[in-house]
């Protein structure tokens, strides 16, 4: 299943992705292994707008391993830029162990420059770890093409695995023998059912398996991945752009006059497959939308996030959702 996801949607080579555990656990394992592989370097580069679980894991690793975090403070809509990362690397020459960011920002949907930031990290001698939770099944990634070292992500968003579906991790094949899995479990053991003394990891990415997986979650993830591969990432991306462009046009026509502002990049090439709209009373409006049968997310401090999954969302649903929001926010009914 990892090869289906990797070669079919993420641009990885065979035997570089394994589906297992949760995003938090997989992120911890890869970040921990990366720090161990760069023992003489003290700093981790990440941004304050990164997804909370990533930040919390990094804070714990920095505390426990006498490392420090070089925090980026990016624009809240555009996210971290190449220049932001370059400045952090220049501030800590030869002392950055890990650069880690989200490819698509969880709040604004801004797409980071994966290629250029990965190149910058490598030039500085750091390993680079990407969170693809809002990328997989939404936008092309090109892991092998761009020389990405490490990545994690979930299968319950645009891969449509549903609640409880497992996460995945990616390790570039050239690094698999160098990095050590910090959580050694029996599913990663060579000759697993020999039940032998001492851990001997399975060759390749399989050595990063840990414990017994949840079969129902795997089955759901497999079907979501299969359907996404069948549709093709280029067609998915085209539909995602069309949906988000339509949502932004509706925002401009119906929500902006009511005091909303757009919380996502306007340029399609810089935006993933969700759109955020902002107003000071977003929290209450989100709850009112849910009660009206439209289910978005609230993202503090003032964003309503509309997830427009290309495989399962139609244009009439986008119109209905934004029309409902306009009505609840005090605008006229559709057609009035």
How would you sum up this structure in a few lines?
The protein folds into two domains: 2-231, Type I PLP-dependent aspartate aminotransferase-like (Major domain) (Aspartate Aminotransferase, domain 2, 3-Layer(aba) Sandwich), CATH 3.40.640; 233-328, Aspartate Aminotransferase, domain 1 (Alpha-Beta Complex), CATH 3.90.1150.10. The chain is built from nine helices and eleven strands. It is an alpha/beta fold.
What is the element layout, followed by pairings?
Layout: H1 2-10, E1 17-19, H2 23-37, E2 43-47, H3 52-64, E3 68-72, H4 82-91, E4 96-102, H5 114-123, E5 127-131, E6 150-154, E7 167-171, H6 215-231, H7 233-255, E8 261-262, E9 274-278, H8 282-291, E10 297-299, E11 303-307, H9 315-328
Parallel strand pairs: 2-3, 2-4, 4-5, 5-6
Antiparallel strand pairs: 1-7, 6-7, 8-9, 9-11, 10-11
List keywords for this structure.
336 residues; 9 helices; alpha/beta; seven-stranded mixed beta sheet; single chain; globular; four-stranded antiparallel beta sheet; Aspartate Aminotransferase, domain 2; 2 domains; Aspartate Aminotransferase, domain 1; 11 strands
């Amino acid at each position: 299943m990892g090869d289906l996801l990797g070669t079919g949607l993420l641009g990885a080579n065979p035997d570089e992705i394994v589906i297992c555990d949760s995003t938090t656990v997989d992120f911890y394992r890869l970040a921990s292994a990366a720090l161990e592989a760069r023992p003489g370097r003290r700093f981790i580069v990440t941004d304050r707008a990164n997804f909370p679980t990533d930040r919390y894991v990094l804070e714990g690793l920095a505390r426990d391993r006498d490392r420090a975090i070089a925090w980026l403070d990016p624009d809240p809509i555009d996210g971290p830029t190449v220049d932001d990362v370059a400045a952090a690397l220049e501030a800590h020459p030869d002392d950055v162990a890990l650069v880690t960011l989200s490819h698509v920002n969880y709040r604004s949907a801004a797409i980071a420059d994966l290629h250029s930031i990965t190149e910058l990290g490598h030039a500085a001698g750091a390993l680079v770890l990407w969170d693809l939770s809002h990328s997989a099944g939404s936008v092309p990634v090109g892991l092998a093409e761009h020389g990405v070292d490490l990545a994690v992500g979930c299968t319950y968003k645009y891969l449509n695995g549903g609640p409880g579906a497992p996460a995945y991790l990616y390790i570039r094949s050239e690094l698999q023998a160098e990095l050590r899995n910090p959580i050694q479990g029996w599913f990663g053991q060579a000759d697993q059912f020999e039940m032998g003394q001492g851990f001997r990891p399975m060759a390749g990415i399989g050595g990063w398996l840990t414990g017994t997986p949840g079969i129902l979650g795997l089955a759901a993830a497999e079907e979501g991945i299969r359907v996404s591969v069948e549709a093709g990432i280029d067609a998915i991306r085209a539909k995602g752009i069309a949906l988000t462009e339509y949502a932004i046009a509706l925002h401009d026509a119906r929500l902006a006059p009511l005091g909303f502002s757009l919380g996502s990049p306007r340029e399609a090439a810089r935006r993933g497959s969700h759109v955020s709209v902002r107003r000071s009373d977003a929290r209450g409006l989100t709850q009112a939308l849910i009660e009206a049968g439209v289910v978005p997310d609230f993202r503090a401090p003032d964003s309503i996030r509309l997830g427009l999954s290309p495989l399962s969302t139609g244009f009439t649903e986008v119109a209905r959702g934004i029309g409902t929001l306009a009505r609840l926010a005090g605008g006229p009914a559709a057609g009035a």
